[in-house]
Write a structure and sequence with these properties.
Elements (H helix, E strand, L loop, with lengths): L17 E2 L8 E3 L2 E3 L1 H7 L4 E2 L9 E3 L2 E5 L2 E8 L4 H9 L3 E3 L8 E7 L24 E5 L12
Parallel strand pairs: 1-4, 5-8, 7-9, 9-10
Antiparallel strand pairs: 2-3, 6-7
Length: 153
């Protein structure tokens, strides 16, 4: 029904996991249907899969809104997309982020893409300047370097 697994009355979830797909488990197309291994984990209520884009020419990224007490987190996600395609979408202004209409939110963005480091070329990565400035925390997947401590960009 689209609700997170911990909201299901028949599930007992102590620590909900929210996950995007990477480049090794990205959705493949069979006719009009997209299917990822993450879909199977999600329908089994083991993870909360988000960040999948069903079209190849635009990305509309809506947040999952999490509230507990006074804390409000807007969790955005973008699973793996071929770097060149995503770069074209960003350059063509076809990547859009939906912001919550009311309140003050901590905005967190999880994405599985190459970062603009190591001279990858202008089209083979996501440049940090492409990501909205109002994002408070960005979690980069796909990067091989393990950086435990957050760092300012």
């Amino acid at each position: 029904n689209g609700d997170a697994n911990y909201l299901q009355e028949f599930c007992s979830v102590d620590l909900p996991i929210f996950s995007i797909h990477g480049d090794h488990d990205d959705p493949t197309r069979e006719g009009d249907n997209l299917l990822s291994p993450m879909d199977l984990l999600s329908v089994s209520f083991l993870v909360n899969y988000f960040g999948r884009q069903d079209t190849v020419d635009k990305a509309d990224i809506a947040p999952i809104l999490l509230k507990k007490g006074e804390t409000q987190v807007a969790l955005y996600g973008l699973g793996s997309v071929r770097d060149e395609r995503l770069n074209r979408m960003w350059q063509g202004k076809k990547v859009r982020f939906q912001k919550p209409s009311e309140g003050e939110w901590f905005n967190m963005f999880a994405l599985h893409q190459n970062r603009d480091i190591s001279n990858r070329g202008s089209k083979n990565c996501v440049h940090e300047t492409m990501i909205p400035e109002w994002m408070d925390l960005i979690v980069w997947g796909h990067e091989k370097e393990c950086l435990i401590q957050p760092r300012e960009s």
